[in-house]
Design goal:
By secondary structure, the protein is of the alpha/beta class. The protein has 11 helices and 13 strands. It has a domain of 195 residues: Rossmann fold (3-Layer(aba) Sandwich). The strands form 4 sheets. It has a 7-stranded parallel beta sheet with strand order 3-2-1-4-5-7-11, sandwiched between helices. Strands 6-13 form a two-stranded parallel ribbon. A two-stranded parallel sheet has the order 8-10.
Amino acid sequence: MTGLIALTGATGFIGRHLLADLTARGYRVRVLLRRPTTVPEGAASAVVGDLTRPINMAAALSGVDAIVHSAGLAHAMSGAPEDDYRTLNTEATRRLAEAAVRAKVRRFVFLSSIRAQVGASAPGVIGEGDPPRPTDAYGRSKLEAERALAETGLDWVALRPVLVYGAGVKGNMAALLRLARSPYPLPLGGLAARRSLISLESLSGAVHAVLAAPAPLNCALVAADPDPLSLPEMITSLRQGLGRGPGLVPVPAGLIRLACRMTGRDAQFARVAEGLVARAEGLVALGWRPAGSTRDGLARLARDGG
């Protein structure tokens, strides 16, 4: 699929990279901005509107071939009420999809989350065939948005990325990068559970793969690089990028968990130290390939300053 793409969330962590990547691949991109601002570099045009209310949607979607919807309330914004997630992630997506139907948009690509499918950790390997069981307001809002898309009759696809890393990353991955930059040995060598990650470059490639797919999709697809890493392996890769050794001490995982519980950091421990391995079988079937290895990507992230 080529032509005009409407992109939401173009000023965010993922959206900025998508704008640059889509433009580099030859798409014309119209950004949908929530408030008047400078048009991001690379955008062919911009329309100001509020996704929570149907303002300017006809103008925003006029002549659009496909929508890439990356805007929403991020999981890192902890403490947000469930109603906020529902309004900004579910209802805004529903309204945009309804406007897309009226504008006869050919395909709707929704940046969902692996949290629409599982909690912060999960046993085994997660794939598209597993029934979705979100465990928090964020995950439920993303799953409800996917189901709203399925009700519209649009040709839609929801990408469910695992933890995304790349230039400008925030949240847990930014905290991990700060930890790797510290000059001290870290008591994390005993953590063996593996987690899947995906780079910004791989995720952008996934968006292109679903935009280019010739047949209707109408499904949710897991987005994950194929080489899950343990937390010690992540730290080792980041410190390799900094030109340093791993500096890891093998303290038992139970002791670390206890320390996190005593300091109120149970959730942070679960997100980075417990297992969550996912396989992007649907994307691979569409011809998608990761941009590179996770180890090399993390080393480059640290080397380039994050």
